[in-house]
Specification:
The structure holds 2 protein chains of 2 kinds. In chain A, helix 8 runs antiparallel to helix 9. In chain A, 73% of the residues lie in helices and 0% in strands. Chain A is mainly α. By secondary structure, chain B is mainly alpha-helical. Chain B has one domain: Orthogonal Bundle (MetI-like fold), CATH 1.10.3720.10. In chain B, the strands form 2 sheets. Chain B has a two-stranded antiparallel ribbon. In chain B, strands 3-4 form a two-stranded antiparallel ribbon. Chain B is globular and about 75 Å long. The relative contact order of chain B is 0.12. The chains are: A mainly alpha, B mainly alpha. Chains A and B meet through helix 1, helix 4, helix 5, helix 6 and helix 7 of A and helix 1, helix 3, helix 4, helix 5 and helix 8 of B.
């Protein structure tokens, strides 16, 4: 063991640096959460104090639940996110299987065509996307969002999943073929279960940007009944800008589900990023 | 000889992805570029060639806003490159230290802002920096710097830099994670060989690790570039579509939104909006090409 690399002074300095940055990262979230449980007076009198029996108040949450349809927004966000992930994973895995399993004319070209979208943001096509959604009557439906997010997520999904599909043993697939399995059965019963970890990575990568997006809900589905949680909180906070209790509670209600999901999936997410899937 | 049967299953496997991707991404992209060559007069759509672009770059009604937004966008990007990426690299370097305790805990905590939406981040910082609430001035007071406080988001000269720093605060987790992953792939033998030659600590980082992770830094730079030139949400949430004060925080994303949808008295103009999208497309494409052909191919990669 080398002395220079485990010097206690160095170790202490490293912890001080990390703790400082962790505080910077968490402080705003912490301030919002604690103040959402306080009365208006307490928010202004002592913003950094924890809520106590005297300052505790749920008035903000009551306003939010009365005024905003947050359950509907939450449901919309949930449907859009789950729907998009389902199609990204299913279509992405199917295309990745075709590209990695079969040799056919234009295979490389098709791979390159699908990879184009990794670097080019879909937002650039917004004007024509809105035109198309209006023409097909999909505007102000959740389907418009699901379609856009599916198209946006597919390029990277195909790219990552084909890397993993190549790793599925040929012997296994050929054994399946000898047993008379159709190509579809080989995909669904043999290949798909084996790339499950990669699919989880793709799902976690796509989940956060879809859940948090403001641009497309604002443009394609701004109607009250199709608002997502992100757009809903944006509009709500814009209207209640002077009601600090309501604003802080709305922010907390938007933070909490994401935090819960993060606690559940953070290991998967961090393993996905650090395994080099995005290189 | 019998021709092998056509393999329909390949078509079935590829079709859904290719159809959705082509119809919702590639086709609208080109259609937007096409729409930028038209204009609307009354109820007719008229082909005008590159006139929209001429207006965008040269006609003061448009060009002032365009060059302002483009300049702001470059400043926004520069702050990310100068602040976000060095902090991310420094954090990753510390985290990748062997035998560091609680590394996973720090890593997860520092990544939390990255998973929050711009709406949350934007409003949270707006409240914290607000002179009405007074958290920022009272915290500065604690370290004796109260005189430095100003309503940063409301001042033309500070607003854009403040928002760029808020965005840096949010996204520092991404370079941190990617560099951390790259640092983990450096084999122990190389570092040990360096130690035998007396290269340890800081100089080991500068002389051995940094050259080895340069390709990852390149990837992070291009990801930052694409994300910044496509940014919209944070500015829209904190400053609205007008990107105030007096357009000082206007970037290409907010400029395109405002032009496309209109605001207050100005009517929305999809064709001018498309022209701005076209300009954004060219800028992003140029950035990606410079990276792919100018930087990535010249970068020295070391066999590890």
């Amino acid at each position: 063991m080398n002395k220079a690399r485990s010097n206690p002074l160095n170790t202490a300095a490293m912890h001080v640096a990390l703790i400082t940055y962790t505080l910077i990262a968490l402080f705003p979230v912490f301030v919002i959460l604690i103040n959402s449980f306080k009365s208006r007076k307490a928010i202004f009198r002592d913003p950094l104090a924890l809520p106590n029996s005297e300052s505790f108040s749920l008035i903000g949450y009551q306003t939010v639940l009365k005024q905003g349809d947050f359950f509907l927004y939450f449901q919309n966000s949930f449907l859009v996110t789950v729907g998009s992930l389902f199609f990204i994973l299913l279509f992405g895995a199917m295309a990745a299987f075709a590209l990695s399993e079969y040799r056919f004319k234009g295979n490389t070209l098709m791979g390159l065509y699908l990879a184009l979208g990794i670097m080019i943001p879909i937002r650039i096509g917004t004007v024509a996307i809105l035109d198309m959604m209006v023409a097909t009557g999909l505007v102000n439906t959740l389907w418009a969002l699901i379609l856009v997010y599916t198209a946006q997520g597919l390029p990277l999904a195909v790219f990552i999943l084909s890397e993993f599909m190549r790793g599925v043993s040929d012997d296994l697939k050929n054994a399946g073929r000898i047993d008379g399995l159709s190509e579809y059965a080989i995909f669904f019963k043999l290949a798909l279960p084996l790339v499950r970890p990669a699919m989880a990575t793709v799902a976690v990568f796509n989940m956060i940007p879809i859940w948090n997006d403001l641009w497309f809900p604002l443009i394609l589905a701004p109607a009250e009944e199709t608002k997502t949680l992100t757009l809903g909180s944006q509009v709500f906070i814009g209207q209640f800008v002077t009601n600090w209790n309501a604003v802080l509670s709305a922010l907390s209600m938007a933070i909490i589900p994401v935090l819960v999901l993060y606690v559940i999936f953070s290991r998967q997410l961090i393993r996905g990023i650090t395994s080099g899937a995005v290189k | 000889m019998q021709k092998p049967p056509f393999r329909w299953h390949i078509v079935v496997f590829l079709a859904p992805a290719v159809l959705v991707y082509t119809a919702v991404m590639i086709f609208p992209l080109f259609n937007t570029l096409r729409l930028s060559l038209y204009t609307r007069i009354g109820s007719d759509r008229i082909f005008v060639g590159l006139e929209n672009f001429q207006n965008l770059f040269g006609n003061p009604i448009w060009s002032e806003q365009f060059w302002n937004a483009l300049g702001n966008n470059f400043w926004f990007f520069l702050i990310h490159m100068l602040v976000q990426n060095p902090i991310g690299i420094a954090l990753a370097a510390i985290l990748s230290h062997p035998r560091l305790r609680f590394a996973a805990l720090y890593r997860s905590a520092i990544f939390i802002p990255t998973i929050l939406s711009f709406v949350i981040v934007g409003f949270a910082w707006k409240l914290i920096l607000s002179p009405i609430w007074g958290i920022a001035p009272s915290m500065l007071d604690m370290v004796g710097l109260k005189s430095l406080f100003a309503p940063w988001l409301g001042k033309e000269e500070y607003a854009l830099t403040t928002l760029a720093l808020v965005s840096v605060w949010q996204f520092v987790g991404i370079p941190m994670m990617l560099i951390y992953a790259a640092l983990l792939t450096i084999p122990e033998e190389i570092l040990e060989a360096g130690e035998i030659d007396g290269i340890t600590g800081f100089s080991a980082f500068w002389k051995i690790k940094l050259p080895l992770i340069l390709p990852s830094i390149g990837i992070i730079s291009i990801l930052t570039f694409v994300a910044n030139f496509n940014a919209f949400d944070l500015i829209y949430t904190t400053q609205g579509a007008l990107a105030g004060p007096d357009f000082s925080t206007d970037i290409l994303g907010t400029f395109m939104y405002r032009t496309f949808f209109g605001f207050q008295l100005q009517l929305g103009d999809p064709h001018m909006g498309s022209a701005i999208a076209g300009a954004m497309f060219v800028i992003i494409l140029l950035g990606v090409c410079i990276y792919l052909f100018g930087i990535q191919t010249r970068m020295r990669r070391y066999q590890m």
